């Protein structure tokens, strides 16, 4: 098969062996796969994979890795021991986790679990969900990105006396905004330095947007909140210094959900956090039930992700598209169609 292959820090399209489904696995054909910021973090910071003692995410620069974990695919074959509950030809997606004989592996972040930047890859049948929708595959594949913010917004359990502030309006920040709006939470304040992202935040459900380079988002939050409610901040940037700036600038008693997680690490002013009584919850991936909820919301059209979508590219254009994905002024999602 053809695939955009990561090796030694470089991605290029070439021919590799087709994956073979093992026990409980499905062989699927990639129909569409989004380029995520975590793909960039993975290829730029191999040390993060080296520090993952779970073995789920492993970047060995001397072997082939096929990235891509936000996908919509078509079932091509069924491995031994499968229940065969999903017919060949069905459109599917799943949490990006492959169960192997050696343990669980993140799809697209391990040599043993190739992802959607190739023509074919493998899924765990038990985790696979059928697409009950006529929506295009390039829309369906965004569901995994939505699930991250969806899970954070659900776990936050924002009360009527709290007003959220979303810092960073990339895919995760936008998914937080869309989910909060769907849950009936508001008003929602969103902050981003890029005008196009602020516009997309409004399209996804934000009530007020602010450029933090020009105006303090905490001042805007106070104006919008209009009283002494509690503040819940969703940090969705992933650059060093952002979480610490939130700790320094936010209200006392703020609850922070940190979804960014810069691979380089973060230095925090813990004394200020202690003095303000701040609670920081570090993100993690979506809970399985939340992934299913987000998947259904996207597939039914109940959550419109079209404002997030940019162009589609083929396998030969993946290296250039990865570079384009680094540009904050570009589209939230570039989609690979192998």
From TrEMBL:
Residues 171-296 form the Alcohol dehydrogenase-like C-terminal domain. Residues 22-127 form the Alcohol dehydrogenase-like N-terminal domain. The keyword Calcium does not apply. It comes from the Bacteria. It holds the Pfam family ADH_zinc_N. Keywords: Oxidoreductase. This is Zinc-binding dehydrogenase. It comes from Actinomadura rugatobispora.
